[in-house]
Amino acid sequence: MFSLVPLEPVDYLVIGHVAQDISADGPRLGGTVTFAALTARALGLRVGVITSTSAETSLVALDGIPVISIPSQHSTTFENIYTEDGREQILHHHAAQID
């Protein structure tokens, strides 16, 4: 069950899955939701995020941005493999649906 907490008004609300990207340097936060939220904040907007992710995924990259996360067994997880022919992207897990 979710607990209700007071939230500040936002100018820009991002709804969708943050992605946990598998990289040679270890997992890192990625995905359109992450990059859109960080860009909007850099432009001076008050940003909020609604996502779905597992408890193991670090959201430190979004520090300072209010995040409401629907608990999920897995985070949406991608592995990107770069070759001379381009990028191959593998979806390992998909987070819970956001209703």
**Helix-strand topology string:** EEEHEEEE
Percent in strands: 35-45%
Output the structural class. Answer: mainly beta
Tally of individual helices: 1
Are there runs of 5+ residues with pLDDT below 50, and where?
none
Q: Shape from CA axes?
A: globular
List descriptors.
7 strands, 99 residues, 3-stranded parallel sheet, mainly beta
Describe it for me?
The chain has one helix and seven strands, in the order E-E-E-H-E-E-E-E. It has one helix at 32-42, and strands at residues 12-15, 19-23, 26-30, 47-53, 67-71, 76-83, 86-93. The strands form two sheets. Strands 3-2-6-7 form a four-stranded mixed β-sheet.
Summarize the structure.
The chain has 1 helix and 7 strands. It has 99 residues and is mainly β.
